[in-house]
Automatic annotation (TrEMBL):
Domain ALOG: 51-178
Keywords: Developmental protein, DNA-binding, Nucleus, Transcription, Transcription regulation
Low complexity composition-biased segments: 34-50
Pfam families on file: ALOG_dom
InterPro entries per record: ALOG, ALOG_dom
Compositionally biased tracts (Polar residues): 1-19
Gene Ontology annotations for the cellular component aspect, listed alphabetically: nucleus
Lineage: Eukaryota, Viridiplantae, Streptophyta, Embryophyta, Tracheophyta
Protein known as: ALOG domain-containing protein
Sequence intervals crossing the membrane: none
Compartments in which it is found: Nucleus
GO molecular function terms noted in the UniProt entry: DNA binding
Keyword Magnesium: no
Family: Belongs to the plant homeotic and developmental regulators ALOG protein family.
């Protein structure tokens, strides 16, 4: 699991507690960013923002905070896909999705009958949606599409990898249910989907 670069920065836990809670934070202190691309809210924002827009703004603020806390300091203009991957791995510590290791007896079980010590991670679906929002926010804040770190190939590959590995570990298929199931599949038909 730790074959990739470790990203252990305990200091972030205190300053970036937002991701640990499920309560909706209203972000009371939009601190001004000294970057070329602003992290503050766009002036056109009204009180009737959609849930998506609100979430996007929170995600953008979270990422801005992450950059400000980054050591060595990192500005958005120098942010690459590799830094986005760092960010995603950093978020894993706040994850709530059990992802079984291949050694776990529940590997591949969608509904394990007992607890196990496998790590909690961010679910692929959450990360995928997050990257989509951040990618949009980047360009809304003046970033150039060709320089969008959230659209980097490395990020796409990483997300695909997370999807495949979590699909195996959790016994859940993320494929759309369009394809016909081949008849010789040894497993019983899944009863979890309706
Ligand atoms: Zn497990």
């Amino acid at each position: 699991m730790d074959s990739l670069q470790n990203f252990e920065t305990p200091n972030f836990t205190a300053s970036l507690s937002m991701a640990t809670t499920t309560t909706t934070t209203t972000n009371p202190n939009p601190s001004p960013a000294s970057d070329t691309i602003s992290f503050s809210s766009p002036p056109s924002s009204s009180s009737t923002l959609s849930r998506y827009e609100n979430q996007k703004r929170r995600d953008w603020n979270t990422f801005g905070q992450y950059l400000r806390n980054h050591r060595p300091p990192l500005s958005l203009s120098r942010c690459s896909g590799a830094h986005v991957l760092e960010f995603l791995r950093y978020l894993d510590q706040f994850g709530k999705t059990k992802v079984h290791t291949p050694l776990c007896p529940f590997f591949g079980h969608p509904n394990p009958p007992a607890p196990c010590p496998c790590p909690l991670r961010q679910a692929w679906g959450s990360l995928d949606a997050l990257i989509g929002r951040l990618r949009a926010a980047f360009e809304e804040h003046g970033g150039k599409p060709e320089a969008n770190p959230f659209g980097a190939r490395a990020v796409r590959l990483y997300l695909r990898d997370v999807r495949d590995s979590q699909s195996k570990a959790r016994g859940i298929s993320y494929e759309k249910k369009k394809r016909k199931r081949p008849p010789q599949v040894p497993q019983p038909p899944s009863s979890s989907t309706s």
